[in-house]
Request: fold
Amino acid sequence: MALKYKPQHSRLLFIDREIGRGSYPNYSTLATDYEVSAKTIQRDIDYMRDQLNAPIAYSAQHRGYYYTEANFKLPAISIKESDLFAIYLAEKLLAQYEGTPIYDNLFSVFRKIEDSLPERTITDMGEDNARFTVFPASNTLISPGIWEKVAEAIRLSRRIRVLYRAPGSEPAAREIDPYHGVRFEGDWYVVGYCHLRNDIRTFSLARMDSVEVLSESFRIPEDFDFTRLTGSNFGVHWSDNEYRVKVLFDKKAAGYIRERCWHTTQQIDENLDGSLILSLTVNHLLEIKRWILSWGSMAKVLDPPELVADLDRTIKEMANLYEGSR
Reply:
């Protein structure tokens, strides 16, 4: 008896499949096969023809229904216009991942969704789809097969042996228990236990020359919590320290700072001259240093002293690079 109470959409897909086979089913045969009344099937067919624009016709010769358009197929999903627009916009956002290992798989999923929709629905989108553009961020280049092997190891909790190129060093073999994958600013990272350093480290997949999935399995420690581990990070690097960073932005940059949430701990103090001070707490200074440098002379670090000294050295070294070109 449970079949009798299946949702209408399931019945519509069943009717669509039977008509599409070209066997000319009628109310009685469909009702018997699906264990519902002939009246229910009649209402469903009327709904398909009148509301879903299905090209259904009755053949007196064959005493059953058929599609006047041989290739017609009812969409497998029920979708509102707003949902459809969200799908198209999401496909635009997918451009951010073009050139990455998962792009082809995700693009294939969107093609399947599109193929399941009636042609008329797709046509009704008009030119709206051409009025949105997403400029993809730059992506690191990952060697073929690296991402897939690391993803497999994360999924199966298997140790990996990698040939890894740390910045400024020669490639070296490492064995890693990959706990967690991270996508950040165009790069893929894996966070895991490094058996060479006996510590949890972060590794860029773009710096892996080779990956071998080993037979050894591992268990993620119960106290491993990626959210807690990264805590107040400003990027993918972190440490056990915490720094209260204060940056003075002049009025030319202040408008850009106000309009975005840069960090969950941020606080903004306005100055009378239109400038502002952005304060935030981070546990690593490398990436916030790079971010501050990107603002050039519009940003001045006030605290902490070690970041002020580091930036002072960096700026002087940069000035020396251009000393001879003046």
The first helix runs from residue 8 to 20. The chain has eleven helices and eleven strands.
